[in-house]
Write a structure and sequence with these properties.
Elements: H1 5-25, H2 38-41, E1 46-50, H3 52-57, H4 59-68, E2 71-74, H5 80-83, H6 93-104, E3 108-116, H7 122-125, H8 131-148, E4 155-160, H9 182-187, H10 191-202, E5 207-212, H11 219-234, E6 241-244, E7 247-249, H12 254-266, E8 270-279, H13 292-312, E9 318-323, H14 333-337, H15 354-363
Parallel strand pairs: 1-2, 1-9, 2-3, 3-4, 4-5, 5-6, 6-8, 7-8, 8-9
Bound molecules: ligand G3I.
């Protein structure tokens, strides 16, 4: 079921007319006060990762997204494999749909991402060329995509997940073929700085982010992320902010989250909680039941994150909180980890969970 944008507007308009009509009929009773939403409550932008298929496929998806959020992040359709499946052949249709939808509904677009060691097309993985040829394909991809979306997106995750979990060094396919970076392998350690420079030259007004996960663990991962972004900033490389993905579970350390947010804020860069979800089944229990206790624990963790983000990141540096999708049925976690899980704010029927109300409480004083 594809719902063209124009029909969606008519549908939303129809709903609004009906609501207005209903409100009008009960002149004797005051119109019902609208429920608070994530976007109406938060002192910063509230986002969700989105895909064009999901937007097209469901009125509930569209309605929830428009009502609750004022920012979107492209989940997978602005990544290398999707945008340039063959060298020099660019596919912007799905990204354009997301940008058009967001623009129509006055939502910020955070584009994700130019350079990552994953989501690469085979032609890159198998590319044979000297360092100049590698630099050219790298620069051409960034420049082409940044130019296409110039003036349409507010910001980019320029480089994603460049730092290893275990020792804080740069991922390098030479060293770790499994999860190393082909970019570090062929372009040298300073590929990250050049990615930011190419992006900035193509779209000088876009805010540019380094995005990673595991900052809440502390240790070498956090130390290396702080060192990287601080170095870029001190060198005058055009970095605007850092994304703290926050793919966490209900057992994540509150102290670790607080310490990471404080240290990221101390860089002076914008801080974006960029991919938040909170797993309730980190031990892959095949028999798990989403009990009310688990729901309450998850809600408390969402509330804590919002409260701590507001308390530790200065308002000028709050780029917002983005969840990685918003409906449990669209989460990457169950499929990726082959387990039952309910990590997001809305259930598979788009009903607000305890997690939603927990986050809402944490967004206000
Ligand atoms: O929807 C299409 C479907 O129509 C098509 O038939 C199928 C063919 O492969 O692809 C489907 O798209 C898949 C998409 O997820 C939606 O399910 C893509 O192949 C698949 O690559 C994509 O995976 C995404 C992954 O990044 C790689 O891009 C996950 O959804 C997404 O959650 C995950 O997100 C990453 C962040 O970018 C970085 N941080 C970690 C996070 C989770 O791994």
């Amino acid at each position: 079921m594809i719902i063209p944008l124009r029909n969606c507007c008519c549908f939303v308009l129809l709903i609004n007319v009906l609501l207005f009509a209903g409100a009008c009929k009960k002149k004797s009773n005051p119109a019902p006060t609208a429920d608070p939403t994530l976007q109406s409550t938060a002192p910063f932008l509230m986002g969700s990762a989105v895909g064009s298929d999901a937007i097209k496929g469901s009125y509930n998806y569209q309605g929830t997204l428009i009502n609750e959020y004022n920012s979107v992040t492209s989940d997978y359709q602005l990544k290398f494999d999707w945008v340039e499946p063959q060298q020099g052949v660019f596919n912007y249709a799905d990204g354009d749909y997301i940008v058009a939808f967001a623009t129509q509904h006055h939502m910020r677009v955070h584009a994700h991402n130019f350079i990552w060691h994953q989501a690469l097309p085979n032609w890159v993985i198998n590319f044979q060329g000297d360092s100049l040829a590698w630099e050219n394909l790298f620069k051409t991809h960034i420049e082409s995509e940044a130019t296409h979306y110039k003036g349409q997106v507010a910001s980019w995750d320029v480089v994603n997940e460049a730092i290893r979990d275990d020792d804080g060094t740069l991922r390098n396919k030479d060293v770790n073929p499994g999860d190393g970076s082909i970019w570090r392998q062929h372009l040298g350690a300073d590929y990250i700085a050049r990615a930011f420079q190419y992006a900035h030259e193509a779209d000088p007004n876009a805010l540019l982010f380094y995005n990673d996960y595991g900052q809440e663990w502390g240790g070498v991962k956090l130390d290396s992320i702080i060192a990287l972004v601080t170095s870029l900033k001190n060198r005058g490389i055009p970095i605007s902010g850092v994304g703290m993905q926050m793919h966490i579970d209900i057992n994540a350390s509150n102290a670790g989250i607080t310490a990471a947010l404080k240290r990221l804020a101390a860089t002076g860069l914008k801080v974006h909680i960029s991919e938040l979800d909170i797993s309730v089944n980190p031990n892959n229990d095949p028999n798990i039941v989403f009990t009310s206790d688990l729901q309450t624990t998850q809600a408390a963790k969402y509330r804590f994150i919002a409260e701590t983000y507001r308390a530790t990141v200065p308002a000028a540096q709050q780029y917002g909180i983005t969840t990685w999708e918003f409906c449990d049925a669209d989460s990457w976690i169950p499929a990726f980890f082959h387990r039952k899980d309910w990590p997001l704010l809305f259930d598979s029927d788009y009903k607000k969970k305890a997690a939603y109300f927990g986050l809402l409480k944490g967004l206000k004083d």
